[in-house]
Amino acid sequence: MENFIAEIIGTMILILLGDGVVAGVLLARSKAQGGGWIVITTGWALAVAVAVYAVGRISGAHINPAVTIGLASIGELPWADVPVYIIGQFIGAIIGAILVWLAYLPHWAETEDPDLKRAVFCTAPNIRNYPMNLVTEIIGTFMLLFGVLGILANEETLGSGLAPFLIGALVWGIGLSLGGPTGYAINPARDLGPRIAHAILPIPGKGHSDWEYSWVPVVGPIIGGVIGALLFQVLLG
What we know:
The protein has helices at about 1-25, 35-60, 65-75, 80-105, 105-110, 115-120, 130-150, 155-160, 165-180, 190-200, 215-235. It is an all-alpha fold. Helix 2 runs antiparallel to helix 9 (about 165-180).
């Protein structure tokens, strides 16, 4: 139960601050409107760091089914614990998305473009090519798991208390370098949870939730996470 609650809280923080920065940049009459990609990637990096600092000591702060499954695939987490982690992550993601909706409540009606409203909650590719979009998500999440395991393999890093900040910096780097094609979901709960929230919330003029694409940021990160974890274990573990 402790890990379950921690994953709910950690993922809620991730989405509240992560989708929150996207809302600030994209929604009409926000003071952050037009802030651009560097603002979005920085906000997501800090969201990850704060979430890991908050619950890392309790559950390990997976806050991502791809991380949970990747770690289980190399024996770092019992498979019996995987459903508990993932259910908590999805609950937290939906709660975080609802809080973002509330925080920006007057701005939805002021924003005309339904695609921008949806983009606050979930990702979409700039060039819709499902096989290549899948490859992009696989590569990004491979780098996430490989990088996280590399950071945590250093005793000096763990002793310094900087590991959550460095994991946030890793996500920042992934966003800057690999986020352009698909918006770097690299996390099934981060994408699907808020997409569900988008579908059910009473957002004026919101349009469709793009379910045709929704499988890519779920399947791609899981594949990439397992590959990243296994390769790190084989090559550097």
